[in-house]
Specification:
CATH class: Mainly Beta
Structural class: mainly beta
Order of helices and strands: HEEEHEEEEEE
Strand order of the largest sheet: 3-2-1-4-7
Shape: globular
Largest sheet: 5 strands, antiparallel
Mean pLDDT: 92
Oligomer: single chain
Number of strands: 9
Number of domains: 1
Low-confidence stretches: none
CATH topology: OB fold (Dihydrolipoamide Acetyltransferase, E2P)
Radius of gyration: 14 Å
Distance between the termini: 23 Å
CATH superfamily: Nucleic acid-binding proteins
CATH architecture: Beta Barrel
């Protein structure tokens, strides 16, 4: 899968609404974060609580340029929760935390602008 990080890139090809619905994007709260020294690019290991239906899931995120660990705890984020787990070094990443590139191309996390219940699905 090729991810486009360039703000000036053209839109992806059109998809059907059913394809959009197949991607399960949920909100969760970061309850743990630690440095991931084995990662090829600077990254953090995150533990994200998605509520009773999904539970706590782990993710590797390349967000070290814009976020300090202490500031992440308690922050809500959006993530794709129905991709298969992905092995990253010795770490199993279970969800894909979502973000947008800033002016320098570093990840800025995507989150609701006010607190919402963990596990809520994007629509």
């Amino acid at each position: 899968m090729h991810l486009v990080h360039e703000p000036s890139a053209p839109a992806a090809p059109q998809i059907g609404f059913d394809q959009f619905l197949a991607v399960d994007i949920r909100v969760g709260t970061i309850i743990g974060a630690e440095v991931f020294p084995e990662a090829r690019k600077p990254a953090l290991k995150l533990a994200v609580d998605f509520g009773a239906g999904i539970g706590i899931k782990r993710s590797s995120a390349q967000i070290t340029q814009n976020y300090e660990i202490a500031a992440l705890i308690g922050r809500q984020v959006a993530a794709v929760v129905n991709f298969p787990p992905r092995q990253i070094g010795k770490f199993m990443s279970e969800v894909l935390v979502l973000g947008f590139p800033d002016e320098a191309g570093n990840v800025t996390l995507f989150a609701p602008d006010k607190r919402v219940p963990n596990g809520g699905r994007l629509f």
